[in-house]
Structure prediction request, 426 residues.
Amino acid sequence: MLPNLISQIKSNNATVCVIGLGRVGLPLGVVLANCGLTCYGIDINSERVSQVNRGETPFKENGLDEWLNRARKLGKFHATIETKESISRSDIILVTVGTPTTMQRCMDYSQLHSALERISEVNLYGKAIGIRCTLVPGTVSNVIVPYLEDKSKLKAGKDFALAMCPERILEGCAINELFSLPEIVGGINDVSNAIFAELFRKMNPKKDILYTTPTGAELAKLFTNIYRYLSFALANEFAMWAENYGEDAHEIIKVANYGYPRCNIPKPGFAGGPCLGKDGLLLDNTTFTSMVSTAWKLNEAIPQHVAESIRRRIGLLYGKRIAVLGLAFKAGSDDTRLSPCAKLVEILKGYGAIVPVHDPYIPDTLPIDKALENPDVVVVANNHPEFANLAREIDESGCKLIYDVWGIFDATSFKKAAYMRLGRGT
Ligand SMILES: NC(=O)c1ccc[n+]([C@@H]2O[C@H](COP(=O)([O-])OP(=O)(O)OC[C@H]3O[C@@H](n4cnc5c(N)ncnc54)[C@H](O)[C@@H]3O)[C@@H](O)[C@H]2O)c1
Prediction:
């Protein structure tokens, strides 16, 4: 029964459902539909489902609008809040719900648990379940397999296939990366591996498929993100050292990296967001001393460091107008989840400052001209490409100080206002 799924995928006779139409699930479902498979996109958010069925994407993702509308025209992609029937009709179930953290820095598995409950309501015999969420290592083997076997009274690997297939796309580049990135497949057995390899090769027949265990796949995902997060923390630590020595970290990093093949230090700046900001936590419940928690502390302290640097420079922030440009967690994104820019705004408000915010990707922020009305300070918190041409406008705004978190400007661009950047000592 299960091996038949492979030929069904090959001949476009397999139906897929994606549970959770977020930044991971919607691009994945839409791409699979464009590749010939019928796909149901399931979400509990009825507004989001209606929006998607009107052909509108609920968040910014390059190219997603066109891919969504092409899939809809082909009649291959249908968004729905109706869970049971859509899962029942599907041969392959991809779980892409959110796995955020709570205020107490624990995993919030409520979305995952509700998705598993819905899945266990249907007959799973002959189906394949792929878990695409980021999870604490061991969750598939120790929770998901026993849960589904218990509820279905079926045997995982024999009656239904199951694999951990972590998502590694970069928001904004999801479509391209779905075609190009190698896939890590941690199936619970060979047939599970073979089914998901076939599914991913639907997107690109030449795609590299890397096989591991379910826990190996969970760990590989975390290693990828934590590696990046630690390298950003190190760059931020270098920024602090450079500041202490009265030097400019940006210049020093440029010199250190240039022509030297064993050095690739990133720029200092804000590191956070819905993945990097939380993924370390999934590993950091260990008993051994962990670099992850140190990196977290360092990266999370940068917004406070920026606020303190401004306070040291201009004195009391109470009543000062501090315009913040950029609210999303990274360049080109409209995602504010665990955004260090949003944290900076709250810290500045906590100091009693008035904080107008502009972000070209976030409609409910102020337009740039309103945000730049009589500011005392302008903080360029995000490196959105749109900000690169704003030097004159900022300089003309009447502000006394510009704080450039990402070092996107040259100090000489500003004739009227003083210029500071993260990692540059004064
Ligand atoms: N955002 C990224 O760039 C990214 C990259 C790699 C991995 N991940 C991981 O992928 C997973 C999904 O992340 P995301 O950013 O897409 O999350 P998201 O919050 O953008 O989307 C989750 C969606 O699932 C829906 N949902 C919740 N419970 C549901 C249920 N029971 N049934 C149907 N729909 C339900 C929500 O309404 C929401 O639309 C997470 O584990 C995340 O850590 C995210």
User: Anything to note?
Assistant: Residues 250 and 267 are 7 Å apart (CA to CA).
